[in-house]
Amino acid sequence: MTLTPPKTTVFPNPPPLVRIKGSHRAMGQQMGEAIAPQIHHSIENAKQLIDGTYSVLELDWDGATIQARKYLPFAQERYAKYVDEMMGIAEGAGADFDDLMVLTSMEAVTMDALHLTKCTSFAVNGDRTADGHVLVAHNEDWLPEDESDVCVIHATPDDEPPFLAMTYGGLLPNIGFNAAGIAQCCDSVYPSDPRIGIPRVVVSRAVLGARTPADAIRHMLVTHRAAGYNHLLAHESGELYNVEVSARRFAILYGHEGCVAHTNHYIDPAMQLVESEPDELIHTRVRYFRALRLLQQTEQHTVKSLQAIQRDHVNFPSSICNHTDEESDPFDREKTINSIVMDLTSRTMHISWGNPCVSPYHTFHLDA
Hints:
alpha+beta
């Protein structure tokens, strides 16, 4: 379905590519130095969001900082090296580490009241592609104010496989793939059992350091996690999973027919028992079934066929290619701020900055 969406920003150029290498602290510092303006911009955006929604959240920035600090000891105990990355980012950008901790813990400190519910992920393995490649796709939906802060990180850690990933502002990179053939997409879900623990962004950053699918899943299910995402996990061998996670439960769903899809609700019946306010999550189900139908009706996919799905406008504006409803409240103004197709076999990432219906895809390669 094709529409001409109003007021949609076109990004003709690729997002910035930032190359980092070395220790986790050093990589963070390099990232902070390279995108300092974007980091400060994202912090300011977050402060304005918190201030603008006080009547709903009853939370100001000082309160958010106090809450975010509660999550830090859990992250330090299990993932000290990623806390080092965050500290390096703050140092490199000349930013306050407490502010970055709020960004990292935003979903937790707002108790998921933001309900930014429109990301879409899907993947196909070599049985379902024309060239036998494993392809993974993700539309990242978030606040339009952060769209200008998108970048691509090419990282070469001293102690982990090199990876290529997307991020924006001051967040750790987590949606991407590594040289061990592991790819991850993250979709927000809304469990009713959140607790103070390791923030979801830190957990998902750890997945990019995994060398096998089992190692990746172990990170997703780490003890003392604060809550959870759905992690769409793909391996270069063609193994495909949705790993649905809450603070205390999980379900592993396997891609039996060579394809998987996920949006922002739990699919496993046991996980639906701990889903918060499932009746509100209507758009996510429409996108899920639409993506699944489009995946299934093509026998042999290509990068371009997956990109066509990412541009789909059924149920516009809350479609797979999601557009801002200018008249909605601040909790419901998210849009697609980038669209990614990863070719695990050729180690390439094709990314459209902004809505893929109007902005072109650009290709990045993992050098490893």
